[in-house]
Amino acid sequence: MKVEGFAADGYEAVREVFQRLVDDGLETGAGVSVWRDGREVVSLTGGWTDAGRTRPWRADTLVQPYSLSKAFVTLTALVAVRDGALTLDEPIAAHWPEYGARGKESTTLRQVLTHRAGQPRFPAEAADLDLLDDAALRDSLARAAPEYVPGTRLGEHALTYGHLVDGILRAAAGTTLGETFNDVVRPALGLDAWFGVPDEALERVADLEYADPDWPRRLHAAPWLQIPEGARDTGRTNSRAWRQAVFGAVNLHTSATAMAEFFSRLTAEDGPVRALLGPHLHAELLASQVTDFDEVFGTRITWTLGFVRDRGKIAKGGIGGSAAWWSLKHHHACAYLTRRLDDHSRAAQIAAALGDDLTVVGED
User: Fold this and answer.
1) What pLDDT does residue 362 have?
2) Are 307 and 53 in contact (CB under 8 A)?
3) Stated pTM of the model
């Protein structure tokens, strides 16, 4: 299948790499976008959005990028901080008393946003809960003891991140994650991205598929993704009910163009993220907060409040192979969003064609 779209002069290598991924069968549906100096210089699509291979991928195709979603959960939390509903460093329990139990009395929003709250997975007691029973899942986190003393260790809060922030927003700001994102963050940033895809956009959503049937079990993060069941099950994640729900840690639905444009403006002093948050919180968002061994990633890593950062990039990706980043070296942004759930080698090849390196390196 021929790759569609355009690549400006100097970006031919990106098209060549992407075409090879499609030709070799390593990619069955994806979009690539690169932005530089305020304009899109690469917009490429390849493959299909459905298993029957009847609907070609388009520039406006939406797909779930798993943990790339977390960066936008962070923004919703910081909007509540901006508005004075809470602060980064006061105990969450001051607003959500039920949460302040069994060793979580002093846990802060900053610890949640930097994956140091000690709740990288839902507790065993939540094993029988439905994937979409968000109230019960929030309650399970409030009742549970942390796996370690908050602030002492690091592990990406793989499925819990959105439910924690949603619980905090409900208690401190009287709103929800979905409401804050869709009513405040999304329009302020001009994002074609959704927590809870509206009816009129459902036809643009791509179906996820496994590159290999063993993919869900081969993940390093698999032990942190088992409860509740279904987050790696395409039978659930391709359903209308899932697409229109809010499961903040993983189920934003968006396009490659939207993500590349967002990252291209992420650090700008005159950009929409700074306008949304103000100078102080914008600086907090981008600053390196903690460098340590991340147990879920399985490597040493530097987290800001919502992104992975090193000397070369500010980035976020998700299981399955989707990734987006701002190149601190080359001053361009790129997003590679895919429906074919596999490793990150495809995005890494696109990055290499741009002179970037997606290897996760702690910023010491």
Assistant:
1) 67
2) no
3) 0.97
